Amino acid sequence: MDGVKILLVDDETAILDALQILFRGEGFDVSVASSGKAALEALEQARPDLVLSDIRMPGASGLEVLAKAREVDPELPVILMTAQASLQSAVRAVNEGAYYYLQKPFANDELLAICRRAAEARRLKAENRQLKREIRRRDRSQSDRPVGSSRAFRDTLALAETVAPTDSTVLISGESGTGKEVIARYIHRLSERAEGPFLSINCGALPESLLESELFGHVKGSFTGAVRDKDGLLVAARGGTFFLDEIGEMSAATQVKLLRALQEREVTPVGATESVSVDVRVIAATNRDLEEEIRRGTFRSDLYYRLNVIQLRLPPLRDRRDDVEMLARHFLERLGQRAGRSLTLTPEALEVLRAYDWPGNVRELENALERAAVLAAADELAASSLPERVRERPEVRLVAEPPPPNPTMEVIEQAYIRWVLEAEGGNKTRAAEVLGIDPSTLYRKLNRYGLA
Ligand SMILES: Nc1ncnc2c1ncn2[C@@H]1O[C@H](COP(=O)(O)OP(=O)(O)OP(=O)(O)O)[C@@H](O)[C@H]1O
Ligand SMILES: [Mg+2]
Predict the structure, then answer these.
(1) Is 325:346 a contact under the CB 8 Å cutoff?
(2) Model-level pTM?
């Protein structure tokens, strides 16, 4: 029984000593309490795997020890022993959840056998629960796992799966439409809090005073319109996950209050004097560069460090083009299911999707496909059913590098000529047409700027 933690409770020192020697010899990790009172305290601190307690003791009795044990851990096996056994007390002990009721004097072998059995039963129960949880988690994670197979995305997903079962605060950063909320919900589903609520708020969508009352709650009469007490979302999400979306939009004053709430794990509703405790796992998301916001003085660094325990970065879709095909299939399957069609893409359409830059990321891809599915009569969606901006040649920026603060006419002209040329695929005659100048003038300029 290596390492099994047993708490021995008896007010008779001689018995306690004897038991201690016996259990140590068998490899148990032994702690002792020489009164019921001491046992109650030990239960709080030591978290044993097994309790062996006398029933009759001055102060707190063995039945009180039993009750306390069941309170701290309903599955903690408690074995009660008594010298004056009566059927009545035996029935009572077992009814109240004792694992075994033992009459003194007993043979050491008998006692050890019972304790071993109890420890083994506990171990199996814990293992069983762990396995069940693991199976549930796998089921859930397989059935609606966020889609993506690129290296960058898989890394992010793996980190999300690792942190999900912990209670750590997570900060998700990424451009708009990259799937920040998708990941936040996924973490919640895989967490121990999956059965609890997932509540969210968009910090950029509400004016400061409303946001605060939504987050922290308010009491009746604290402002016009507060006709009754209202729990804040942080409190309402108890036992679950709270998603703070667009955290970068939060005002300085609200940031201070949020920081305090996170540190103290309690909130004071607007207009209230008493605080309310909060039990939530916080996930925050931002499409801003918060470190830059800190440098600019618009985001508090202490709040940032509080939120940024684990950071998940969602790369933009253009940096994980390998995901485009898989995502497209995923969306088409979903759209098809709804419409009773079996939707696919022509090779050209897929080519177009892969080449596009997706400034709106996954959301834009999803919308483009939805539109195509509606417009196309055939189940195989052609490139022509995709939005025009997606079909256009990749965007070429007018000026590749940021222009100097006061660009001269020449700098602008040079950049403009280069842009038109690229847009026209290097065709100088067409470029001259677009520029509205003579081809010979264009050639001269190209020579002068060294672009020829
Ligand atoms: N990996 C993914 N698998 C499946 N669907 C995805 C994935 N990523 C994003 N989506 C879909 O793309 C859309 C945008 O995702 P989401 O709302 O999570 O993005 P966001 O990063 O929170 O965007 P915003 O910053 O604009 O709030 C959603 O409809 C979502 O279902
Ligand atoms: Mg979002």
Answers:
(1) no
(2) 0.63
